[in-house]
Amino acid sequence: MLNLADNQQMLIAGAALLLATITFIKLLVWSGSRGKHLPPTILALPVVGGLIRFMRGPISMIWEEYARLGSVFTLCILNHKITFLIGPEVSQHFFNGHESELSQQEVYKFTVAAFGPGVSFDVKYSVRLEQIRIFTEAVRGNHLRNYVGQMVSEADEYFTKWGDSGTVDLKYELEQIILLITSRCLLGREVRENLFNDVATLFRDLCNGMQPVSVIFPYLPIPAHRRRDRARARLGEMFSTIIKSRKASGQSEEDMLQRLIDYKYKNGRPTTEGEITGLLIAVLFGGQQTSSITSTWTGAYLLQFKQYFAAAVEEQKEVMKRHGNKIDYDILAEMDVLHRCVKEALRLQPPLPLLFRYSHSDFTVTTKEGKELVVPKGHMVATSPSVANRLPHIYKNPDTYDPNRFAPGRNEDKAAGALSYIPFGGGKHWCIGQLFAYLEIETVWAHLLRNFELELVSPFPESEWNSMVVGVKGELLVKYKRRRLVVGN
Ligand code: HEM
């Protein structure tokens, strides 16, 4: 029989053995990963330190760590690891990796609560690709040309309700006109003519139900989620009625709704009402806020930096000398100055400042200094258009609003290849709505430049960081005075 002293000795020996074994295993693991060079890890207090730093300001945190650790580093948030890849040199695999290696599904799954079942991140990848193809076809070629006609008449009609002079919140006004255009071109005539106000309210509830907390707990019973669910259900009913009556009438319209109704999957199956509703909501989500935010930032920068406003007005005069007051697809393509002004606003203020993927297998990235780092399987992987678009080795005076950086001869957006400019993402999941977005924003701004003198009366705005899509904080108050551009002056 063992006495107490023997027991204590055995316990101590057992503990020592356990400690030695753990140390040995750690050494083995360490020596194994030593050759692999994992990305450096951000210093933060244990358990919640990383979360606190990230929530306090993800973009300032990325800048600080980029300066300290370089273009690839890992942040530990609770039991998750997020590896950031900053800059074109290290983000090739992020944008071009195969879905089986680096996927969106896990990280964007929270959108299912708003989009509904059977679409986007609720279906297997092959089906999602087919659904994206329907969008792609609906926003290219002749469809786009036809949409421009609708965009122009929406802008003409909307701004007639402004008086001869006054003060407006330009942010609100641009949200409204972009939503009208989106409704008309994508959601269809029925929504635009009869249900616009209802859809606008329901869409607002849907957007407000996509909060940072929704990414981790999409079904948390909070009031914002309950409003989101009610809005989703009501939109489902409304679209179901529209789809039924359109099918019954046999009439075909020039909008995305029609493309979705007419589509048949590769196996011959037609789209269901639920899928059409979900896809319309998804496209509204992808295109509405992003475009209205970009229109607003374009205005803020043009009105703050008056030399660019004047250059854009001059360009309108030149275009009007050739085409009179008309605006169509080809005429918009002649507005290079305006295009660069929008593009530069997007570089400085991308509405989607962080993009995510989930890594299913280890992969290696090589930094521009030639260092090889292995990003392990199981990490979330992120990149940031907000940071990547201001890297000083790509953009000269990166914090300055300078649309001419995109002019021929400078082409800074191509300095380090295709991934130098990423407000629309890049590679495999590059935004399919880019052209549509530019067309609608430029149509609206061409109308404003031709018909109004504008002056910014509120301070230059800050960014609004409390939502998934980052917009303009507060109002953008602008004084306007109606005038017609006199061509030839
Ligand atoms: C200024 C306006 C816009 C911005 C800044 C923007 C930005 C982006 C970005 C960054 C992505 C890539 C997301 C990722 O890689 O995780 C993306 C994808 C996408 N965008 Fe846009 N977008 C805009 C307008 C639009 C419009 C107007 C539409 C529809 C008409 C649209 C539809 C889509 C779709 C369907 C995808 C997913 C493509 C895929 O996964 O293959 N976007 N957008």
Automatic annotation (TrEMBL):
It catalyses: a 14alpha-methyl steroid + 3 reduced [NADPH--hemoprotein reductase] + 3 O2 = a Delta(14) steroid + formate + 3 oxidized [NADPH--hemoprotein reductase] + 4 H2O + 4 H(+). One of its GO terms (cellular component) is membrane. Pathway: Steroid biosynthesis; zymosterol biosynthesis; zymosterol from lanosterol: step 1/6. It is a single-pass membrane protein. It comes from the Eukaryota. GO terms for biological process: methylation; sterol biosynthetic process. InterPro entries: CYP450_sterol_14alpha_dmase, Cyt_P450, Cyt_P450_CS, Cyt_P450_E_grp-IV, Cyt_P450_sf. CDD domains: CYP51-like (cd11042). Catalyzes the 14-alpha demethylation of obtusifoliol to 4 alpha-methyl-5 alpha-ergosta-8,14,24(28)-trien-3 beta-ol. This is Obtusifoliol 14-alpha demethylase. It comes from Setaria italica (Foxtail millet).
